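Subject: sequence -> structure tokens, single chain

Hey, anyone have a minute? Need the predicted structure for the following. Not urgent.
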Amino acid sequence: MKAKNIFVLSSLALLGLAVATASIKSNNPLETKAGASHIVQFGPSYNSEKIGSYTNSWSVNCDGIKYNLENWNNNNNEWDYVKAGSKKDTSVATFSTTATFANPIENIVFTFDTWNTSNVSSTTLYTATDSSFKENLNSKSLSFKQGDNTVEINNPTSDLFYKLEISIKKSKNGIIQLSKVIFNEVNQSLLAPTNLSFDNSSKTLTWDAVENADSYELT
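Reply:
Had a minute. Here:
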């Protein structure tokens, strides 16, 4: 992305530029662009199929991005959320990405409408550089509560896959309810100026701005 910046100079200022050497530096970008947010939702518009049990594998597609779910129930597409947990046995509910994002992820927000800590054995977020979660695998133990839970990503990079794993004790059906997941990208620095020049005849100073430059200098 480029932006052109133009200043009209007085004759005195132009003369000063011509005969003197000046240095202007900046370590800050002129603008910071907020990173994109990838929102995962549930319901008939997103679910891959109708699920009426707590033991199936399926997926959702949100804005062209596919996410996998295991051992979550969507009540045959009647809910705009999903539930996990079984009265028959212990279970492990997972939610995972199937591809990497274009930019690094700074944090992930999981929204749980119901969360019962006493019925959860462990909660873990895994990151890896492959979708089978075998290469460069890292794990982070989590402690969730009802409501929004923000998980910060250490050393964000753009080549990561993410998987949330919840081990649930035998209790009752649907003890955990998840309604939304948001992947927030890191902020991006924009519009640091470069390619500075001026036109003597029009007394105009011009530069082109480019993304991700850390400093600029006029001499």
